[in-house]
Amino acid sequence: MTVAVIVDSAASLPPALAGRWGIGVVPLQVTAGGESWAEGRGIGPDQVVALLRAGDEVSTSQPTPAAFDAAIAAAVDAGAEGIVILSLSSMLSGTCEAARAAAARSTVRVEVVDTRTVAMAQGFAAIAAAQAAHAGAPIDRVADAARTVAATARCVFYVESLDHLRRGGRIGPAVAAVGRVLGIRPVLEVVDGEVIVASRARSLGRARAQLHATVDEAVERCAHPVVAVMGVGADDAGESVAREIEARHPGVGPVVLGDVSAVLGVHAGPGTLSAVVADLQG
Is the CATH number of domain 3-151 3.40.50.10170? Predict the structure, then answer.
């Protein structure tokens, strides 16, 4: 069976990596000023940062049914006899259910994997699935490869303000208030599909040190560690953190560096910096 791999845009896969592994990307939607865009097609992280800093109201929504149907049709036209779709955590979005609805409409078998994570934790899982597919694995093994890598992944990040996460319903108001009133810069992590406060730092420097400590711990636990560093409106912080990780862990290889997706940028807000570690062979 020829198996295709599709992921939603919240995976934040750099286009070069998606292209290298032949991974299809279905865009989520960004809405501002009464207008909606498919992210990556008219709006990106830089535009989201500008809108948020200007105080504009920006919201997001799951991919349209037509977007999933089109991605599945394109894969079938390219020869796919089976498809694995990886969605961001169902605890954070309705994208997984939209993917399952599209799977039910498909003329070929479609396996939907709820990665229970987001950003490049989801992206590395998609690469693992694509590697298995390229090796000729059947659809169940392709899906299992994605689940295995997603389960190993750690996704940790800090934000400039918790207000964006609070407005999007990704954290509760009590947690947001702690960061605002006490001047704490929380370090957050995606655990079991949800965003939790992993630690509290009283400065940007301490938040970054905690991020590095989490990366150090995660790398030591992986047989084949891979790392990504991504931000939104974080200036040059991402490159600085990536270079430091490479210096601390010479065996990791080049750190994947880029922007988180526009949709994630809406919810995390400007000044966000994230690091992802996963166990990925090959």
Answer: yes
